[in-house]
Each structure stands twice: as structure tokens, then as C-alpha cells.
Amino acid sequence: MKRTLAAAITFVFLTLPLAGCGGGDGRNSVVTQILSDPVYDGDIAKDATSGNYTVTQGNTQSVFAGIDPTTFTEYRTFLDFPLTGAGGVPGDAVIVSATIDIVINSIT
Predict the structure, then answer these.
(1) C-beta of residue 105 within 8 angstroms of C-beta of residue 63
(2) Residue 13: helix, strand or coil by DSSP?
(3) What value does the CA radius of gyration of the chain take, rounded to a whole number of Å?
(4) Contact yes or no for 36/79 (Cβ under 8 A)
(5) Spatial CA neighbour of 45 closest among 73, 72, 69
(6) SS3 of residue 44 by DSSP
(7) Can you list the positions of beta strands (E) in the chain?
(8) pTM of the model
(9) CA 66 to chain centre
(10) CA–CA separation, 28 and 92 (whole Å)
(11) pLDDT tens across 41-71, in order?
């Protein structure tokens, strides 16, 4: 009887602290997919000879990045990702990490 009681008390004291361990920190995870907004997407081209910049923005069919090997014009792309709104990140959320996937349709 004493062994059973001692075993039961030991079991309770060992399992009770573990009962509250659920892992995590009490925050909920939200996973969402946010596409870039083509109205604000575009690119900036720097002419290699004159040094002048040309900005292309708004509903473009494509954006350019890299250096044109024939003219040596340098292109830099900018993409806009609206984080709020339907399907976006909740207003009180903290972004811990993010991943961006880019699809390149052609290299010319």
C-alpha cells in the first residue's frame, strides 16, 4: 500500500509540470500568399553611357533585372507587396520570417 501511494505521488509530481508544456509561445501562426501589385511594380534602367535613369512603372507586362550585355544598361526591379487587406497579414501581427519565390519566364 505504501509503495502504491508513493508511486502515485511520484507519478503526479513528475507529470504535473509536464502537463503545461505544449510547446510554442502561445502565438498563432498565420500563413498567407501575397502576390505583388502590378500597378506599382516596375524597373529602373541606368544608361551605361549617359548615366541617365529611366523609370518604368505601372501595369507593365514584364520587369527587367540585370545588365543588358549589348548596351550595358543596368536594370533594377522593384515589386510592391501589400501586406494588409483581404488575405493579408492581420494588423496586430508580427512578421517573424518571410519567403519570396520569383518565377522567371524568360531570359533575353
Answers:
(1) no
(2) helix
(3) 28
(4) yes
(5) 73
(6) strand
(7) 42-46, 53-57, 66-67, 74-78
(8) 0.56
(9) 23
(10) 12
(11) 999 999 999 999 999 888 877 888 899 999 9
Spatial CA neighbour of 40 closest among 90, 79, 1: 79
Do the beta carbons of residue 59 and residue 38 sit within 8 Å? yes
Contact indicator for 65, 76 with CB cutoff of 8 Å: yes
Phi, psi of 66 (to 5 degrees): 115, -165
Q: Residue 35's closest CA among 103, 93, 107?
A: 103
Q: Are 66 and 54 in contact (CB under 8 A)?
A: no
Closest C-alpha to 11, from 22, 3, 1: 3
SS3 at position 74:
strand
- 19-42 in b/e form (b: 16+ CB < 10 A) is eeeeeeeeeeeeeeeeeeeeeebb
